[in-house]
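Homework help board

Subject: predicted structure for assignment chain

Our instructor gave us this sequence and asked us to write out the predicted structure in token form, then describe one feature. I got the tokens but I'm not sure how to describe them. Can anyone check?
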Amino acid sequence: MRMMRIALKSLRVRWVSLLGAFTALALGVAMTAVMLLGLATAMSWPGGGEAMVSLVAALGTAGGVSAFVSAFVVASTFSYTVAQRRRELGLLRLAGATRAQVRRAVLAEALVLGAAASAAGCALGRLGAPRMVRWLADVGMAPPGFTVGQGTWPLVAAFWTGLLVALGGVLVAARRAGRLGPLDALRSADLDTGVMTAGRWFWGLGLLTAAAGLIGSALLTDPVDLLHRKTYTVQPMVLISACGLLAPVLARPLLRLLGRLPAGLSRWSGRLVRENAAAALRRTGAVAAPVLVSVALTGSLAGALDTVSASRTAEARARTAADFVLTPGAGRPGLVEALRAVPGAVVSPTGPTRLAVVEADGTEVRSEARTADPGALAGVARLPVVTGSVAALTDDGIVLPQEWGHRAVGEPVPVVLADGRRVTLKVAAVLRDGLGDNGLYVTARNAPGSRVDRIDVRAVTGADRVALEAQLRATATRFGARVDTREQWLAASAPASGRIARLRTVLVLGLALTYTGIALANILAMATVDRRRELALLRLTGATRAQVVGLVTGESLLVVTVGALLGCAVAAVQLGAMNGALALLGSPPPLVLPWRPVGAVTGACLLLTAPCAALAALWSLRHRPVEAARG
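My token output:
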């Protein structure tokens, strides 16, 4: 109880310096509460359907990213907060407190602060959830009338998540605080020593090795997995955590390198900027953490989205040999027969169906498939055939990709058709795995209820393309169909999926980037205000107020730049792995550099840093230098 009283009194006295940690945790809990409230509503919404499944997946991903970002930033903030109190905790040891008592005091503070911040975050989340849900309905990601439910479990889960994040974030710092000796109360140097503890090396290198292992394993066994949304959303988090733990090692050479320019342009201020940032590595890590996570996630997610989108477009272009694509109208049969009567045209109608491939253990794996006219399909498509021939497809056969595991031509494959009938088909051809619609193909007899929704037409060699187009359009007009050229169809088929994917990315990144911006402002203010004595000593040595403000601002900008570079490194590794996977899959791997979103986020961090650091420095210099130096 005595240490609890000390903890409560410390919170009352140090509330200004703890405001950054409180705000970071409260906003993190608010983000988590907003996502959980939306997720709970989506899961219980009547009707369901694929659109609701997609929304649940998007909200779940956004909630996971929000929880990670808040935990990462809060852990860094709490660690720095405890490091700031080295002299205070040393005085407790000097007064007779044991190491266990110091640890309990730090944990008690985290418990009280975490409970208050989590409660505030739940209240903010309840207020913000309706606005988020309204936005989802406005952009078409949620059905009209989608509203937040009144369930309480999302708020309870968010509260306990915040409390556990606070305790987990301060746990390592509390152990380090318990190791402080009484003589640490007498230390006045700001040089950080012993930042890279054995545990930090272990976890940092362990996570880095785990990330390398995951990427290498996927490239060797299942390259497609690196292109899935869950993979390129979760995998950067491992790299970000590794970079955060190894930041003292990674940041120092970058600070030396980037600090050469300001050091060379000024007599003393540039050198102080570089040396201050390199000496106070805990402060550097705390300020760089929000920038690292925001730039890394932006580069990874935006770059992955553009990479997959560009690869799909390139793949579709490479595998479509048709000159024209027709979309049939509703209720007017006979279009296919009329098109086949047009001279000089190779007509390939296809339609959607669903079937399930039965695995060896009896599991039914459902998938989308398409009907095909084998000879025509082989003439208008450049499918990536590994073995067999698409033209050999019959009513007793099936064309399927490598991922299904049936790779021998003639091998029997048990399937369940759309009407529930079980049949055994033989492999006619195996296709290389890809990103686009190159999956399962069967004949119309094995697709009950399927209707043609796409007709590819290619002009035979030597045919008059202009005359063919005129005849196709005249025939399409009679049957109420639409005719697109190859380029028109490729351009029209890409944006729909791209729009939904971009909205998912906005949902995942939107709140996370807003949160990291506010957290960055709080940490800058907290770190700068804590340097009152150091800045006062600079004033006493002859530096003007403007010079000190410029020094603090320059140092903060340098640290933010280092955080952005570390974030770019994480994004580069992630995008490099994706390009390697595309190369192994035989898809054209486009070089996509998300410089616009990354540049925008980095620029926003720099623009936010300059005024926040300058204002915090001015606030710290409001007292006379002699009075501030005395404290």
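Reply (TA_rk): Your tokens look well-formed. For the description, you could write something like this. The chain has three domains: 1-188, 235-321+497-631, 324-493. That's the kind of observation they're looking for.
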